What we know:
Layout: H1 6-10, E1 14-18, H2 24-33, E2 40-44, E3 65-71, H3 77-81, H4 83-98, E4 103-104, E5 115-116, E6 118-121, E7 125-128, E8 131-143, E9 147-156, H5 181-199, H6 205-214, E10 222-227, E11 230-239, E12 245-248, E13 254-257, E14 261-264, H7 265-271
Parallel strand pairs: 1-2
Antiparallel strand pairs: 2-3, 3-9, 4-5, 6-7, 7-8, 8-9, 10-11, 10-14, 11-12, 12-13
Amino acid sequence: MFAVAPSALAAGYRLEAHESVGSTNALALERAREGEPDKLWVVAAQQTGGRGRRGRPWATPPGNLAATLLIKETPDAATAATLGFVAGLALGDALSAVVPTAKVALGVDGADAGRSRFELKWPNDVLADGAKLSGILLESSMLEGDRLALAIGIGVNVVSHPEDVPYPATSLSRLGAKADAGELFLALSDAWVDNMRLWNGGRGLAVIRERWLKRAAGLGSAVSVRVDGRVVRGIFETIDEACRFVIREDDGSRLRIAAGDVHFGAVASAHA
C-alpha cells in the first residue's frame, strides 16, 4: 500500500510500513535508539495511540495517514525545530498534487481568487477551506554522544475526520478527493525531498519562511494566542526569521511567540 517516491529512494530515504501501530513517532524514536540510520519513514494506515501537541490525542482510524520521518543529522535543536515548517510545506505540496480543484475563489470582489485551498496554520496544522485536515508533531530524543533524534509526525484525515472537536475539521474524502493514504504518502515523500533541499541544513530557512508565508492561514487578520497562561490579542503580522509568530497588539507593540495556541477571527474571541 505504501511506497516512497523514486526521488526519495535516490536521496537515501527508506520505508517501514505497517497496517496498524500505537504511535509512528514512538516507533521511529525507538528505531533511532536501536541504531537505525537517518531518513527512515515509519508509516501506518491506522494509529491507536497517536497524540498531538500538548499530549492531546490524535486518532488515526483505518484509511487515514500516520507518517513519521526519522531525522538524526540535525545541526542543533533550535534549527531542527524549523523542520516543522518544512513538513507543512511538503504536505501542502503533496495535497495540491493529488487533490483536484485545489484552488478556491473567496470574496465578493474575487480578491482571493486562485488562493490555494490548503493553508498552513502556525505552527503545525494544515487547513483545507479553513478546517483542520492535518496535524504535525515534532518529538525528539537524545542518543549516545549527545546526538539528537527527531521524529517528524504527520497525521492526515484521509477518509474520515473527528466530529467531537472544538474546531472545524475535515477530510480528503469530505473534500471530494479520491486519493487514498498510499497515494498521498507517495506524493509527500517526493515533496519532502524538494523542500528539504531548500531547507539545506537550516541555511535555506529564509526561503522556507518566504514559501510558508505565501500559504499562511490568517495572515493580516485578528488573532488571539494563549501563551504562558494568558491571552494575547492582535493582528497576525508575520513569522520572523526564526519562524516565531509575530502578533501586533492594539497598542502597536509586537510580540514574538515561540509556542502557543492560535485562534483566528470570531474563534479568537470565543477562545480568549
